[in-house]
Design goal:
The complex is a heterodimer of chains A (199) and B (99). Chain A has 199 residues and is an alpha+beta fold. Chain A contains three helices and ten strands; from the N terminus they run H-E-E-E-E-E-H-E-E-E-E-H-E. Classes of the chains: A alpha+beta (199), B mainly alpha (99).
């Protein structure tokens, strides 16, 4: 009887150990995000570092700060852009801010952005991550990180595009780089996005 | 003894299934809380704030077959057309509403 009880006790311990191991593995998977590299990065709104130039939208509703290694480039009349372009004209870093122009909404922004890309200048576009309720300086936004291939040149870019709602207006900030160099470029680009200020 | 072992094994399997279920739920909950900066102010999102779509095939995935937005009815011409933005010449896309 005693031997039977001892054997049963070992079985119970074995079962409990198995459950603990499985639970630990499940917890580790959950804490890792389950899909490494796919989680949306944390965006903490913060003023741009000292020395970063600024571009203000012509309607005065937002301020784009950009690293000194970028230069203002031309674009739409109501938008502002800054970029780092190679001597051969290849875009290495790109920042753009544009007032809300169309049917952009915070809800469904990621899908809207992908539709717009493929309807305009991209042959294909694919969402990588998205977030809503992202805090910005002076507002709240919805963001998407995606990659797309341009119709002209078949250039593959990766971008973070956010629709940001301020108190009285909304605008879009885009930060992009060649997909091949996104890992190196994204910290600086995300810093610029985090410094974006809306009114 | 054999019967006892079988009972124990069955119990372990059942508990393993339950534990796996809890792990999945924890993953979803974690994903929803992932963006530290996500602070909805106007209205809390109904859906999880963070989406992580399943990885696509190895080859370049074509654009999803979705209905084009109303604003894309007249896309800006490519090849230095329209507003002559970089994105009409193979550069990165800007944030315009395609209008």
């Amino acid at each position: 009887m005693t031997a039977h009880t001892s054997l049963r006790g070992r079985h119970v311990l074995a079962v409990l150990a198995s459950v603990a191991a499985i639970a630990a593995a499940a917890a580790a998977f959950a804490l890792s995000g389950g899909s490494p590299g796919r989680a949306f990065p944390a965006l903490v709104p913060a003023a741009a570092p000292a020395g970063w130039p600024h571009l203000t939208l012509t309607n005065g509703t937002a301020v784009l700060s950009y690293p000194p290694s970028l230069r203002p480039v031309s674009g739409d009349a109501d938008a502002v852009s800054a970029a780092q372009v190679s001597p051969k004209g290849v875009f290495r870093l790109y920042l753009n801010a544009t007032p809300r122009q169309g049917d952009e909404q915070l809800r469904g922004w990621a899908a809207f952005r992908l539709r717009l890309l493929t309807a305009d200048d991209a042959a294909s576009a694919r969402e990588l991550a998205a977030a809503q309720g992202v805090a910005f300086r002076g507002g709240t936004g919805s963001c998407v990180i995606d990659t797309y291939v341009t119709r002209i040149g078949a250039h593959r870019y990766q971008e973070i595009a956010c629709l940001v709602q301020g108190r009285a207006s909304a605008s879009v900030i885009v930060a992009a780089a060649p997909a091949a160099t996104w890992a190196q470029a994204s910290p600086l680009l995300l810093r610029a996005v985090a410094a974006y200020q809306v009114r | 003894m054999s019967l006892t072992f079988i009972r124990s094994a069955a119990g372990a399997a059942l508990l393993a299934v339950l534990a796996a279920g809890c792990g999945t739920a924890a993953t979803a909950q974690h994903a929803a809380a992932k963006p530290a900066a996500a602070q909805p102010r106007h209205s809390a999102p109904v859906h999880a704030p963070v989406t992580t779509p399943t990885p696509p095939p190895a080859t370049t995935a074509p654009a999803p077959a979705t209905k084009a937005p109303a604003s894309s009815a007249n896309p800006i011409p490519q090849g230095n057309g329209g507003d002559q933005d970089p994105d009409n010449n193979g550069g990165p896309s800007d944030g315009d509403g395609n209008i």
